[in-house]
Write a structure and sequence with these properties.
This protein is mainly β. Helix content is about 5%, strand content about 40%. The chain folds into three domains: about 90 residues, Immunoglobulin-like (Sandwich), CATH 2.60.40; about 100 residues, Beta Barrel (Thrombin, subunit H), CATH 2.40.10; about 70 residues, no CATH class. The longest helix is centred in the C-terminal third of the chain and has 10 residues.
């Protein structure tokens, strides 16, 4: 029988969700069937484990039950899928409350990329099993993904904490042990994670400060792509860019990231050696 204190833990490298967070720090979700808090111990370079931080609340975590298809982004969609929770509960909410910050879920694709989506509908259809509906896909610059049954799901709320990674530690391999607060990091209930911070949430805003677009108006993602590439998407996007007409997109850490244009936003067009500015709903 599994000890109910056994810890489940997931690290999430996500784009910025609000403007106040330290952007280079990844998120950590921790839970257990009987959760009373957890300590995070860290070892860097084989130098032994030291207490790094603590987690006070259990995250709401689970997995996808029915496959989630790639979908266009935008306003509320008539799309639904089922999830099973290993820890926690979820509830339906009015759209206004969802837009204010609740019912934000992170789902991980088979390739490891995360999508952030909002849901207003949450129907309990079995023990710890829910049907989520009334969705907004590809939130906060993430791209809609295809998630097979079994894909990880984490509800992003105050129980999910930021790991205290320093900027100088980006790219540094570390070993983590997450254990109940009253047990040693060597205990069998501890979760072990090998992790190297990639600084996604730090690099994405930097990429947008003075972006240089390789193409303007292209509708299909390029076949050959390198980390850090930026494009202004055309009016009829397809493939991984579907639903992102006019957006600025950048390729970081194996996935396309997106930024909706706003009045006065400017991007340097490398092909024409000129500055493009978004005004009155169009790139000029």
């Amino acid at each position: 029988m599994t000890d109910p204190r056994t810890v489940t833990a997931t690290i999430l490298d996500l784009p910025p969700i609000d403007g106040d967070e330290p952007r280079h720090r990844p998120l950590l979700a921790v839970a257990a069937a009987r959760f009373g808090g957890a300590h995070v111990w860290r070892s860097v370079g084989g130098d032994g484990y030291r207490l790094w931080c603590s987690v006070g609340a259990a995250a709401t975590m689970g997995h996808v039950v029915t496959a989630l298809d790639v979908s266009v982004t935008g306003d509320w969609q008539d799309q639904a899928f089922e999830v099973a929770l290993d820890h926690g509960e979820i509830y339906a909410a009015p759209r206004a409350a969802v837009l204010a910050g609740i019912n934000l879920a992170a789902i991980r694709s088979d390739g490891g990329a995360w999508e952030l989506l909002r849901f207003a509908g949450a129907e309990l259809i079995g023990p710890s099993r829910y049907r989520l509906s009334d969705l907004q896909r590809g939130c906060h610059g993430t791209a809609p993904i295809a998630a097979a049954a079994g894909a990880d799901l984490v509800i992003i709320d105050d129980a999910v904490v930021r790991l205290p990674v320093h900027l100088r530690e980006i790219g540094t391999a570390m070993e983590l042990r997450i254990c109940p607060t009253d047990r040693a990091y060597t205990d069998a209930t501890a979760a072990a994670i090998s992790y190297t911070p990639d600084g996604l949430a730090h690099r994405w805003p930097e990429l947008l400060v003075q972006p240089v677009a390789l193409t303007v108006g292209q509708n299909a993602p390029p076949a050959a792509v390198a980390d850090g590439q930026v494009h202004i998407i055309g009016d009829a996007p397809i493939g991984a860019w579907t639903g992102r007409a006019g957006h600025v997109t950048g390729f970081l850490f194996g996935a396309w990231r997106f930024q909706a244009p706003f009045e006065g936003y400017s991007v340097w067009d490398l092909a024409s050696h000129s500055r493009r500015t978004f005004s009155a709903g169009a790139w000029l």
